[in-house]
Amino acid sequence: MAYSKDLLVLRDGQAQSGKVIKNEFKIKTAFGDVTVKKENIVHIHFARPDGTGYPLSDEIKTNTGDDIRGKLVQTQAISFVSAENNQSERVHRDNINTLLFLGSQDAPA
After folding, report:
1. For 93, phi and psi rounded to 5 degrees?
2. What distance in Å separates the CA atoms of residue 89 and residue 68, rounded to the nearest whole number?
3. 97 contacts 46 by C-beta, under 8 angstroms
4. 56 Cβ neighbours under 8 A, 6+ residues apart
5. What is the Cα–Cα distance from 10 to 64, expressed in whole angstroms?
6. Domain map of the chain by residue range?
7. Is the separation of the CB atoms in 62 and 68 below 8 Å?
8. How many whole angstroms separate alpha carbon 98 and alpha carbon 16?
9. Longest CA pairwise span in the chain (Å)
10. Could you tell me if 80 and 40 are in contact, meaning their C-beta atoms sit under 8 angstroms apart?
11. Contacts of 16 (CB under 8 A, 6+ apart)
């Protein structure tokens, strides 16, 4: 069975549909650590490894409209099952620009 609810956008512009295996993400903010379940996330933008560009920090956008900024912790690589070939791979966070969780956009606002 091929997955296609998530979209992985790499820093080089390539995009791949499939499924992110991780079910929740922990982000360290100025106010403390926040854990967000994947089904509540619309997208995650990863800060550039060299600290330049936008966003300046990692950013989680929830399906209720919250923007949570900080540093993703315990997220050195993302395990991803490709919809194209049903193969699992681990992608280092420094190579990822954005994760889009398309299933989360179906949730009521």
Report:
1. -55, -30
2. 27
3. yes
4. 47
5. 25
6. 6-101
7. yes
8. 11
9. 41
10. no
11. 7, 8, 10, 80, 82, 83, 84
Calpha distance 79→53 (Å, rounded): 25
pLDDT value at position 104? 56
Q: Do residues 32 and 60 lie in contact, with contact meaning Cβ atoms separated by under 8 Å?
A: no
pTM reported for the whole predicted model: 0.86
Q: Residue 50 — pLDDT band, cuts 50, 70, 90?
A: confident
- How are beta strands 24-29 and 32-37 bridged, if at all? antiparallel
> What is the C-alpha to C-alpha distance for residues 1 and 83, in angstroms, rounded to an integer?
8
Q: Which two tokens stand for residue 30?
A: 């100025």
Residue 99: beta bridge partners? 8, 44
DSSP state of 3: -
**pLDDT tens track for 52-86:** 877 789 999 999 999 999 999 988 999 999 998 99
Amino acid at 70: G
Strands of the chain (E only): list them: 6-10, 15-20, 24-29, 32-37, 41-45, 58-62, 67-73, 77-82, 88-92, 96-101
